[in-house]
Write a structure and sequence with these properties.
The chain has helices spanning 2-31, 132-137, and strands at residues 56-58, 61-63, 67-68, 71-72, 90-98, 101-103, 116-119, 122-125, 142-143, 147-150, 153-156, 163-167, 170-172, 185-190. With 191 residues, the protein is an alpha+beta fold. The protein has 3 domains: 1-30; 43-85, no CATH class; 90-190, Ferric Hydroxamate Uptake Protein, Chain A, domain 1. The strands form 4 sheets. Strands 5, 6, 7, 8, 12, 13 and 14 form a 7-stranded mixed beta sheet that branches.
């Protein structure tokens, strides 16, 4: 009986010590900063109208940053760069048709944009992973499976017309989320 009581006491003391170590192990690192520096830097988001508004100076080297939806995608050198600038551009052909008429989307382009450039129907994208929606945003065009917004006008699906996306003459249902590849022929059609 005494032996059993002693083993229960040892068990209880062992559990208390283990729980105390667990609590200390999770709380003390939160109070101690071994480097002496703040590890998290809060940076205000930056508004932009073009990629030129977003560049950063990291270690005395200028880095280009994508402007998307009027916000810089990266706001400090410590942030991860989702769209690093690449000198080797992805080039593809892009045309937008409304009721069988090709729309000149290049008249809405901003010369200050460096990640996405337009030359007639040829589009050059200087970062991998940028979707068609982000690309068309640079020329004030937005679209999904229901509507297309171009030249300040909305064209929406009806009994007579619909929005379609063709990639290399094949229908695609990815719409704005489609990520173009080198050599693609992309057509956005409303008819």
């Amino acid at each position: 009986m005494a032996k059993r009581k002693k083993s229960q006491r040892v068990y209880k003391i062992g559990m208390l010590v283990l729980l105390a170590l667990i609590v200390l192990g999770f709380t003390i690192p939160g109070f101690i900063d071994p480097t002496g520096e703040d590890q998290q830097v809060n940076v205000e988001p930056r508004l932009c109208q073009s990629d030129a508004d977003c560049y950063l100076l990291c270690d005395d080297v200028p880095e280009q940053v994508l402007c998307s939806q009027n916000m810089c995608v990266r706001n400090s050198c410590q942030e991860y760069d989702l769209y690093p600038y690449n000198l080797d551009a992805i080039q593809f052909s892009l045309a937008v048709f409304i009721d069988s008429d090709q729309i000149d989307i290049t008249k809405n382009m901003n010369d200050q944009d460096s990640f996405i450039t337009f030359d007639g129907t040829t589009v050059s994208v200087f970062s991998a992973g940028i979707s068609l929606g982000h690309i068309l945003e640079k020329v004030d065009v937005a679209f999904d499976s229901e509507c297309i917004f171009v030249n300040s006008e909305n064209y929406c699906r009806s009994n007579d017309a619909e929005v379609s996306l063709f990639v290399n003459n094949e229908p695609s249902f990815e719409f704005a989320s489609y990520v173009p590849e080198n050599g693609d022929v992309v057509r956005v059609v409303y008819e």
